């Protein structure tokens, strides 16, 4: 298989976002210093929205916060639109 560098970068960004949500959940359970909400949402909006969404679901983290329930799906839609537009314009 021949993956483009763009696809590989997106994969790494989404893995990092997923890990951030998992680490923050671990820190929440163990009463340690947390990762800021701004950092978690920034990771989602910087093309890591799929990792953030899966992190929310898998770790059951930030699922009750309205801000995350609205902004992470919005980030998924926005990131998807940017990806499709980028593929359409630069292929």
Give a structural overview:
The chain has three helices and no strands. The protein has helices at residues 5-29, 37-58, 66-89. Helix 2 crosses helix 3. The radius of gyration is 14 Å and the shape is elongated.
| Helical run tally | 3
Strand content: under 5%
Contiguous low-pLDDT stretches (5 residues minimum) are none
| Pattern of helices and strands | HHH
How widely separated are the two ends?
Answer: 18 Å
Helix content: over 70%
Number of DSSP strand runs? 0
The largest pleated sheet is described as:
none
Question: Quick gist of this model?
Answer:
The protein is an all-alpha fold and 91 residues long.
Task: Outline the fold blueprint.
Layout: H1 5-29, H2 37-58, H3 66-89
Keywords, please?
91 residues; mainly alpha; 3 helices; elongated
């Amino acid at each position: 298989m021949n993956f483009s560098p763009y696809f590989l970068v997106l994969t790494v960004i989404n893995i990092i976002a997923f890990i951030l949500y998992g680490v923050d959940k671990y820190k929440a359970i163990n009463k340690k210093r947390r990762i800021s909400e701004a950092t978690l949402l920034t990771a989602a909006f910087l093309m890591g929205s799929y990792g953030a969404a899966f992190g929310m679901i898998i770790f059951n983290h930030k699922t009750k916060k309205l801000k995350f329930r609205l902004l992470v799906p919005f980030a998924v839609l926005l990131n998807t639109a940017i990806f499709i537009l980028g593929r359409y314009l630069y292929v």
